[in-house]
Design a protein that fits this description.
Blueprint (H helix, E strand, L loop, with lengths): L5 E4 L5 E4 L5 E11 L4 H8 L9 E13 L2 E10 L40
Antiparallel strand pairs: 1-3, 2-3, 3-5, 4-5
Length: 120
Amino acid sequence: MAETVRVEEAYTERDETINAQGAVTEIEIPYLVFGVADESAALAAAKPKVKSVRGMALESIETVERINGTTWKVKAVYEADEGGGESDTDAGEEGQPMFAFDTGNAPAPQASGCPNERSE
């Protein structure tokens, strides 16, 4: 009797990548594919089952490893849609405060003549 082809998400192994601004730029969602004999069949079975991820475009579906004779692990890789991730210029939405600090190449403070300053 042939094994039924089945695809299940491996929830405990999901990976997310964020950029310096904290926006998610990539998500990898692994799936286990049961009842297939080879890599091509595993990818073909997984393709219609992968979830859509809001704000992310499906970049690829890749095999990760062969678990046994009829079970494969594959992963769906999603990347932020063009314009979907937050950039430096998007951070200051109207009504939201935006702060910037420049600490590079500042000249040394000069004595101001304040009474609490010591001169040497």
